[in-house]
Structure formats: C-alpha cells, structure tokens
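If your schedule permits, I should be very grateful for your opinion on a structural question. Kindly check, if you would, that the fold set down in the tokens agrees with what the sequence suggests. Thank you for your consideration; the sequence and its tokens are set out here:
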Amino acid sequence: MSQTPEQNHSQQEDNIPLQHDAEHERPPRNKQQSVLIYLVILFAAAFLLMALSYFMQRRTSDATIEGLRGQSVSAMQSVEDIQEENETLKQQVADLEEQLEEAQRELDGLQTLTENLTVMQEQLTKAMDLFWQIDEAYVRGRYSLCRTLIAQMEDTTQGSALKESLPRESTTDTDRFSPADRYQEIYDAVM
C-alpha cells in the first residue's frame, strides 16, 4: 500500500512531536545514577592513580636523594683524606727541606774544614821544608844562613809564624826531639 504524499506528510508531522518528546525526554533515574556512579568511580580511580604516582615519584626522589647524600659523604671523606695526605706531604717536604738545609750547612762546614786543612797542610809542608833547611845549615855550621832561614820561619806577615805549624810530637820511635823541639834548640843556639 502505497501512501499518498499527503498521508506521508501528515505522518511526518505526527512523528515530529514524538521525536521532539524523545529527544527531550529525561532518561530514567536509574540511568542517571549509574552514570554518576561510573563518573565517581572514574574520578576515584584517577585520584588513586595520581596518589600512587605521587608516592612512587617521592620514593624514587628519596632514593635518589639518599644516593646523592651517600655520594656527597663519600666525596667529602675523599676530600678530607686528600687534604690530610696533602698536609702530610707538606710536612714531609718541610722536613726534607730542613734536612737539606742541615746537610748544606754540614757540607759548607766540611768545605771550610777542607780548605783550612789544605792551608794547614801547605803551611806544614813549608814549615817542614824550612825546618830541614835550618837543621841542615846548623849541622853544617852555616849559622848566618841558619839565622836567615830562622827569620823566614819567624815571619808573621802572612798570619801566624811558620814555626807554629811544626809538629810537637816525634813521629819516630827514637827518643829524638820533635821538629818543634829541635827547631827551638837550634833557635836558642844561634840567636
């Protein structure tokens, strides 16, 4: 059965209020409550997830902070150890510098002593040389030469007289005079 266009239009006009009523009709109360409960559950789940995320983040942050504190303490201990080692090394350097200065003073003293011994040896050599010439001149009876040589031995223009360098002890096992005693004997005889 086919409907005429007028009937079709009339049916459409009849459907308009029904459609309008269906669109504006309130959903049943049961449906509203279930949607509301669903929304509350969603918000609660979202809140729980956010709280869980917050606590996990906090735990991670606390662990990171503890790790950093541990590293900081370890670094501080390392710095303190390095500072102590540095102080120890500075003290060792100071001790070594002091030992070096002491060794340098000893070396300077030894050099001075060596120089003095060299001068004394030279004076002893000159004095003994002159002494043997005086003794030889005295034994041969050449008293004027002996006096001239004694004058050289007594000369103090270069510091002390050479006679002061003559040994005071005999180096032989004979009961003879030491060079200083023999010189004095000759000196007393000719002067």
